[in-house]
Structures are given as C-alpha cells and as structure tokens.
Amino acid sequence: MNCVHLVDATYELFRAFFGAPPKTAPDGREVGAVRGLLATLVYLLRNEGATHVGCATDHVIRSFRNDLWPGYKTEEGIPEVLWSQFSLAEDAMRALGLVVWPMVDFEADDALATSAARLAPECDQVVICTVDKDLAQCVRGREVIVRDRMRKKDLDEEGVLAKFGVSPPQIPDYLALVGDTADGYPGLTGFGSKSAAALIRAFGSLEAIPIDASRWPREVRGATRLCATLEEQRDQARLFKKLATLRTDAPATESLDELRWRGPRPELRSFCKALGFEDLVDRVPAPV
Known about the structure:
This protein is an alpha/beta fold. It has eleven helices and six strands. A hairpin with a 4-residue loop joins strand 5 (144-148) and strand 6. Helix 1 crosses helix 2 and helix 8 (171-178) packs across helix 9. 43% of the residues are buried.
C-alpha cells in the first residue's frame, strides 16, 4: 500500500514535553522534548511502517490568522524551556532524514492540509498524524484519514460524521459556531456541539442557516434565542469560519517521491551524541 504519513510535529513536540521525562544535554540544555519527538518518529519508521513522511511545525506560533482575530493563539503561555527546543526539534527531524515544513506566516495545520490535498490523488492513503480537530476537514473517505497515534484511533469520513455530527467539509462551519479554545476563538454565545451540528446538517453551511427560528430543526433547543444571536453575530461567525478553514496553498511542495524516507543523514549520530541520546541512533531502521 502506497501510504503517506503527515505529522503534526508541533503537537508531537508538546506531547513529548509534557509526557516524557526531562533530559539534560551534556552542555546543560534541556532537550527532553526533542528526544521524545525523535523517539516517536523513529517508532513511526520502525514499528508503524512509514515509508513517506512529511513533518509540519509552527516555526513561530503567530500566523496570518492573528491579523484577522486579535485573540488568536500566540506563543504566550508556552514554557520557555519548551519554546527553546522548537528550532532544535526541526534540526533533529532533518538529521533523521525527514522532510520538514517550518511554517512562519501559515500554520503547521495549513502545511498538512496542503500536502494532503495535493498528494491524495497520487497514493493509496494519506494519514494525518494529529489530534487537532481542525484537520478533520481534510478527511476524504478512507483515502485521507486522521490518526491519533497515542490512542491508536483513526478517523475516516464516517468517523468524522459520528464524532462531530457533520461531514468533513463542514468542520469549519461547525467550528465557527462552537469555537475552538485551543486556537483562541470562542464561537457564538449559547451554541453547543449538538445545536451546531443539527443546523449545519440541516442547511449545509453556516451561510445557509436562515434567520427564522421556525424553520430550524426541532432538536435545536432554545432556537429563538440562538437565532437572535446568529443574526447579531453572523459577521463574527463568518470570520470564525475563515479562521477554521485550513489553507491549501502553504509552502509544502515536495512530491510523493521527495517524501520517501531514504534513511538518516550522516550527521544524525553526531547530532544525537551532542545532545546525549546516542541510543536512539541504534533504533533507526534501514529504509525500505
């Protein structure tokens, strides 16, 4: 099976920082998150059979979305000891021989969405390795899926519908109403997951929801109140939908062949030695 794995490396770095033990390099730097990231990518290659891999990072946290919404996520609140490992993590992935997309104006999610849309017609399956619900909008049948590697759970198109109550292309409409606290926008007052999903299913999109509560599905509780809120905040909802919609024109242009993993770079051993985790080098498999 010709399969591409697209990795949300920012998430993996955060997961390693909060889930793996700390590690001090010989020069005194804290590098535990980098070690954890590198270890999970080696596992992806060795135990999960990945042959074509692209890794997206938020080289900086701010993006064009911060110009659209002042409350959008920033680097504030990220521990300095984690923030200091971002660039080192990118170097580690390159030393492992992986393609890295460090996003500046775009976000890592945009790079993953761009590559998924471009490569899906060329391979049997695209696996987006993330837990970010934004990326559910990229799912297409079984050809493009989202994988939670830690819980070993996949979301295909049927899974997205079962989890969110809407189809993958409708995820931005859904998030416009319910918001996304991780990304820093609140959605519309009073809208929950059930009411949002019912409206998007019934009318197809945010823009098509009528400002007439009598036409809304009966299952939407408090329809009159919610309808008034939507009428008052519709422009804001459109903005939230724009924030939630992933771009497919990010600078992630490598071809399928260029994403094929051909083994680590020669500097991997010296890189790992400098950071104090030479043992990881011995776990790296031979390329298929």
